[in-house]
Amino acid sequence: MLESAKSTFSPDILYVADGYFKKGEKAPLHYHDTIEISIVLKGPSHYYINHQHYLVNTGDIIILNPYTLHYEEETEDVSHHMHLGIDNFQFLGYDKNVIPIQTPIIRPQHSNYLKQLVERLLDEKKEARLYQETTIQLLTTDFLILILREIDKQQLPIHPMNQKEKDKTILANSIKHYLETHHSEDISLESLSSSMYISPTYMSKLFKQETGESPINYLIKVRMEKAKELLKQNQYSIKEIANLVGYQDAYHFSKLFKKSTGISPSEYMKGLPLIS
Q1: Which of 1, 74, 114, 199 stands the most exposed, by the fewest C-beta atoms within 10 Å?
Q2: What is the spatial distance between Cα 258 and Cα 224, in angstroms, rounded to a whole number?
């Protein structure tokens, strides 16, 4: 059973956002550095979470732990969501600001009551009222407790402290996937971190912890392996291959290739068996 690490349950409410998505609209890939919990007030809608697609419907709950890459896309009609950001939140035996889940999508048994609670919450936000902040805090806490009870009821046991490490691995794999599929583009540490919606410092540290090397070194390895494949085809000049794997300067490419393999690209080509 999940238990709060504190004697009282009083997380900080960072924001309560009311969001509508029209057909054809798509949010950019992003993440949050705290927990975000969303409820679908009118569906269906499409969520892409850590490169996995989820179709969500009215009443569904989406749990996003910190640094979970995601975006929303609407392909059918207008969808309506409420997004709740929370901080200063911890379960006994787990890292701060981590909800231990097996899946990010929860389908609660009492979705109608939750919807009514959220509608009261959104109505309370519409205009300034006496004790408005206190009321919002109470309604939000009630909503959170109901969600956490649903998670506690539905989720299979998960090993304590593993969720945050799992999220880091997923994020590192997302960076690797991006580098492997965009290796021909002009990529810098800054542009890569911007694409991942992560600070360059945090991204470099996380990636090195997970893979043992920097993102740029990994990119060079990917490019050199692709260059070898192209050299084997014997269809392109060294300058063309340099451009195809993301280098505008053939001399710089040749230096990196020799550093990686011990021989130059032209020597590598000469050592290949002739293909008739």
Answers
A1: 1
A2: 10
Query: Which ranges of the chain would DSSP assign to H, the alpha helix?
Result: 111-125, 132-154, 162-181, 189-196, 200-211, 215-233, 238-244, 250-261, 265-270
Q: What is the CA radius of gyration of the chain?
A: 24
Cα-Cα end-to-end distance for the chain = 68
Give the residue-averaged pLDDT of 184-190.
Answer: 91
CA–CA dist 198, 192 (Å, integer): 9
Identity of residue 140: T
- The domains located in the chain, with CATH, are 12-154 (2.60.120.280), 163-270 (1.10.10.60)
Cβ(95)–Cβ(67) below 8 Å: no
Distance (Å, whole) CA 159 – CA 152:
14
